[in-house]
Design goal:
Largest sheet: 7 strands, parallel
Strand content: 5-15%
Number of helices: 7
Organism: Salmonirosea aquatica
Protein name: SDR family oxidoreductase
Pfam families: adh_short_C2 (PF13561)
InterPro entries: NAD(P)-bd_dom_sf (IPR036291), Sc_DH/Rdtase_CS (IPR020904), SDR_fam (IPR002347)
Strand order of the largest sheet: 3-2-1-4-5-6-7
Number of strands: 7
Helix content: 40-55%
Structural class: alpha/beta
Family: Belongs to the short-chain dehydrogenases/reductases (SDR) family.
Oligomer: single chain
Length: 263
Amino acid sequence: MRLAGKVILVTGGCTGIGRAIAKRCAEEGAKLVVNGLEEEVGKELVRELGSEKATLLSADITRPEVPDQLVQRALGTFGRLDAVVNNAAYIDFSNIKTTNAALMHQMFAVNAIAPVAIIQAALPYLSEARGCVLNIGSVNAWCGDPNLLAYSMSKGALMTMTRNLGDVLFREYGVRVNQVNPGWVLTGKEKEIKRKQGAPEDWFTKVPPVFAPAGRLLAPEEIAAAAVYWLSDESGPVSGQVVDLAQYPFIGRNLPEKLPSPI
């Protein structure tokens, strides 16, 4: 198994991409500290994986005491910490007219500041294990949809942090830091967002080819499969890298003059 013996902390691990990553890591032999705000579904996940392989700490990662609590849960339960997956994210729609300071503070607190705080708390133990960090970003980090202004900015900050620490932490502590930027992924949260926007229940089966050339959206399990490579020793000394996981080139793509509605 590719992650045998490793202990991995996954934030936002109760649902969506984080849940898929936690499950796949367990299948590959890892033990998990799962963090998320959806406590009941988190408990369900721990029961599914088994208490000997997973533990849940349902807490808000923006609270100053939580990063250290997460690290101590890993040490207290499993005796070590080999990797951190900064997956938790806050998503909200905003543009130049609707973005305000309160939204920006909340967006950056979850998507950029908390990941740094968790790395700081984990660093001594990651260094001891010669472990790694995997940040889950978004292709929106490169520019973003006009109605995802604050979100895109926060993911851009996360990406810059990955490139910065990917160099410094590997040279000084032996800790690799990398990032994957998923494209459009069909998560439960994405379905809920589209329902609130008035989309039909089966909207994801009718996404135009310009947005989904494969005829479907990405699945959380496909992001999880890629995550295993970066969390395993297979990725060797690679650090400070950002990889887009999308169906088409996000930058420099040749789009038709008139775009259809994505839903």
